[in-house]
Amino acid sequence: MIAAGLTAVPWCAARSGGNPPVETRTIVIRFKPAGPAPAGMVWIPGGEFAMGSDEAGEALCSIAGVTRDAQPVHRVFVDGFWMDRTEVTNDQFEQFVKATGYVTVAERVPTAAELPGVAPEKLVAGSIVFTPTEHPVELNDNFQWWRYQSGASWRHPLGPDSTLKGKEKYPVVHVAYEDAVAYARWAGKRLPTEAEWEFAARGGLEGKLYAWGDVLKPDGRWMANIYEGKFPVKDTGADGFVGIAPVARFPANGYGLHDMAGNVWEWCSDWYRADYYARLAKAGGVARNPQGPDTPFDPSEPDVNKRVHRGGSFLCTDQYCTRYMVGTRGKGEISTGTNHLGLRCVRSATAASSPAPE
Q: Angle between the 90-100 and 177-186 helix axes, to the nearest 10 degrees?
């Protein structure tokens, strides 16, 4: 699986996908966390909200890339928690590596057992890198713009000749799931659940398409680093960046979080199942702090173990993948990293005052 988190299925549903309407109101519970904010983190209050994407109804029908796995909308409650203000940067990840000597999956030579059937001479360390095509192509085969690049890793995002010089404040990329978990543990944090991620990304807004509202460019202003131009031929950089951008170059959402849409995908702790939302909705009531399904299952690749990605990346576009929309989902094989996949961490609250609904 080399295009993890990109494939989108254009689709348009009737309001609520044929399910009973779900209340979109967000009920924020203002817990007061104990102690000062951890460095670089912001407090995300607990609360109950409508999770998923189909509640936008007819508004979604004009947007390509809506996926069935993000429905039906269902009610979820999450406790309050701390969250990194930005995606983890190269600078931060380098501190982790220097302190621990950690070697990422992309830097390890794969074994024949891990990649059966691959010729021995092709078992080389590397990762997946986006490569623009020379001319417009049909968007039905992502192998046209992804390649396995030997020597690509978090240190060398585009291959062995590339470096991190001047990119200390860019998001770290080429992190597989176990790399993300290892960093989070070292930092005294963890990866967010998918429910925590979406609650935080919405920033207190109710039933909106994006982390900032229902208009992609309010007053003509770009709010996220996404792909402009003809995909996958040329990113024009109309939003100010061709490809990946440094963190925090776009406005924060209502909770003070930057880049909750676009720039790089972010790992969540949940296993990915295409039918997970339907299962929660069928159970009824409000799902409290859901941790995801017990086992993964992607009907398009049933033998591949995947975790949830959230947020979209600098490669998302309305021509192919609109998953910069706040209620939509991504997915990725757990040992695969790419140059548009990173992470953001959270930390559970250790204590709280009595909750007071807002």
A: 80
CA distance 214 to 329: 18
pLDDT tens digits along 80-112: 999 999 999 999 999 999 999 999 999 999 887
Alpha carbon distance 189, 175 (integer Å): 16
pLDDT along the chain (358 residues), means of 10: 33 41 78 84 95 60 59 94 98 98 96 79 90 92 92 97 97 98 98 98 94 96 97 96 98 98 98 96 94 96 96 93 92 97 94 38
Which residues does 232 contact at the CB level (< 8 Å), separation at least 6?
Answer: 130, 132, 133, 137, 139, 144, 145, 315, 320
CATH of 15-348, one of 3.30.230.20, 1.20.140.150, 3.90.1580.10, 3.40.1280.10: 3.90.1580.10
Q: Check: CB of residue 16 under 8 Å from CB of residue 54.
A: yes
- Of the candidates 242, 266, 84, 268, the one whose C-alpha atom is nearest the C-alpha of residue 158 is 242
**Cα first-last separation, the chain:** 44
**pLDDT over 70, % of the chain:** 88
The string of DSSP letters for 52-73 reads SSGGGGGGGGGSTT--GGG-S-
Indicate the pTM of the whole model.
Answer: 0.90
Q: Which residues of 220-243 are buried (b: 16+ CB within 10 A; e: fewer)?
A: eebbbbbbbebbbeebeeebebbb
- Where are the chain's structural domains? 15-348
**What are residue 190's DSSP bridge partners?**
346
